[in-house]
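In this supplementary section we document a worked example of the pipeline. Step one takes a protein sequence of length 258 as its only input; no multiple sequence alignment statistics are reported here. Step two produces a three-dimensional model, which step three serialises into structure tokens for compact storage. The input and output of this example are shown verbatim.
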Amino acid sequence: MKNILFFITFTILLAGSCKKDSGSDTTSVTSELKCKSLDKFKWKSINEMVDNIHWIQQSCFRIEGAKCKIYTDPLSITQTDVANLILITHSHGDHFSPADIDKIAGPNTIIIAPADCNYTGKYAKRIVLLPGEEYTLNHHVKIKAVPAYNITKTDFHPKSNNWVGYLITINGVTVYHAGDTERIPEMKNFTCDIAMLPLGQVYTMNSVADAAESAKDVKAKVAIPMHFDLYEGTVEDATTFKNLLEGSVKVVIKTRGQ
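The serialised model returned by step three reads:
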């Protein structure tokens, strides 16, 4: 009986605390449970994760979680480090660089990569993921491979290669690293909190507008542009990307550097 009374009291209090944000539709459970305090807590976690994402160059990022350090597509590494996870999206030289992997791989580092990224360095514990497959590290970090390919420029990144992007869930926040991809239909099949999307229009997106629409497809709350200002794409493209998403998705343009 005490448990029942507690549950009723808790439900009444919760509904009352959320009622101000529910508008006139007080019968909607979804509206009643959408408290601003919960939104603020989630946004705090997302913003903290954004601060812990460091763009090095091209599609290379260092992502620092409470219990895990992740590098994506290591490139232009200037300082030695030890990663818990290294994620490789595909075998092109600006994404799969064994010399750069050597600088951040340690005896316990796990490398996740497509089958054709055959790293043979001193520390070579490698896991191959196909699109749709997952890997969990110590119950703290979940990695899911998702498709990454070209629809119109198929000579560069054909779907048949099974190259990937990644959904990285860490500290309760899901980060989408798109890899080299155009705007593909599969993007509408998953969600993320933070999306790292390529802006180059030679090998990846067909336009900056496509990159912006991709951020909306994956329901990102924050978008970080990548894969520009090296072989393709410009700094101005990043500004355009931000302007296109004004009012719908927060855009954070990172400064390159270790």
